[in-house]
């Protein structure tokens, strides 16, 4: 597990610090009640995750992939992809709906799982590598500064979700249709009962 004492600018220490920060935001979200507070947390977590994913995908993962092995690394890639789809939906103008809290909760669960796998499997294996982790860490911190100054590039998942015009989330859409259908059905049956009652009165 994660008990190494590492310099602050060590690449693995930078990732671990990011992990702790997002897990703290997930915990805060679970306790939050007001929508404004939840929205602020979603915004902070989504930004932190996007920055973190760029640093890992551009710099850390390529540096350690061959040594860690494709099984662990490919799984990490796929977990990033799923998280980025959820993030793209949360970022979308269509993302402010009745499933928003659930979507963020699922993102948090999936990222917590991903962090566990990174910290228990990927990072201990990566640490065996004889590379300059502090130089890698410096490159990661510089890239983070650059992203904060110039903005985070739009990823393939955001482009994919943007093309769907809010129609990609079919279970959520089906649930909304069922709710509105049952409302229509119950208002029709109320109307039917009222008509029957009126005919009895007549
Ligand atoms: Fe990751």
Considering the chains and any ligands shown, give keywords for the structure:
elongated, mainly alpha, 202 residues, binds fe (ii) ion
SSE topology:
Layout: H1 11-31, H2 35-68, H3 70-91, H4 100-127, H5 133-150, H6 156-163, H7 170-201
The structure holds fe (ii) ion.
Fe (ii) ion (FE2) is lined by residues 56, 76, 80, 114, 118.
Number of strand segments = 0
Helical residue percent band:
over 70%
Q: Separation of termini?
A: 79 Å
Q: What's the structural domain tally?
A: 2
- What does the radius of gyration come to? 23 Å
Major β-sheet annotation: none
Helix tally?
7
Q: How would you describe the shape?
A: elongated
Strand content: under 5%
- Helices and strands, in N-to-C order? HHHHHHH
Which runs of at least 5 residues are low in confidence (pLDDT < 50)?
196-202
Compounds present? fe (ii) ion
Task: Give the class from helix and strand content and strand pairing.
Answer: mainly alpha
Q: Could you tell me the mean pLDDT?
A: 90
Describe this structure in words.
By secondary structure, the protein is mainly α. It folds into 2 domains: 11-168; 169-202. The chain contains 7 helices and no strands. It has helices at 11-31, 35-68, 70-91, 100-127, 133-150, 156-163, 170-201. It is elongated. It binds fe (ii) ion. Fe (ii) ion binds at residues 56, 76, 80, 114, 118.
């Amino acid at each position: 597990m994660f008990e190494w004492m590492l310099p602050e600018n060590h690449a693995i220490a930078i990732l671990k610090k990011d992990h702790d920060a997002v897990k703290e935001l997930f915990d805060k979200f679970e306790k939050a009640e007001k929508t404004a507070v939840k929205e602020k947390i979603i915004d902070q977590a989504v930004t932190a995750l996007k920055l973190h994913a760029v640093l890992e995908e551009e710099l850390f993962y390529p540096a350690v992939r061959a040594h860690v092995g494709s099984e662990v690394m490919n799984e990490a890639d796929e977990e990033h992809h799923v998280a980025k789809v959820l993030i793209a939906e949360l970022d979308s103008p269509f993302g402010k709906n009745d499933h928003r809290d659930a979507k963020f909760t699922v993102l948090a669960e999936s990222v917590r799982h991903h962090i566990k796998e990174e910290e228990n499997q990927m990072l201990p294996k990566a640490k065996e590598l004889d590379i300059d982790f502090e130089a890698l860490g410096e490159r990661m911190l510089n890239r983070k500064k650059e992203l904060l100054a110039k903005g985070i590039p739009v990823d393939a998942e955001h482009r994919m979700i943007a093309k769907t015009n809010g129609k990609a989330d079919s279970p959520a859409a089906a649930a909304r249709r069922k709710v509105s259908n049952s409302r229509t059905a119950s208002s029709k049956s109320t109307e039917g009962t009222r008509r029957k009652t009126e005919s009895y009165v007549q």
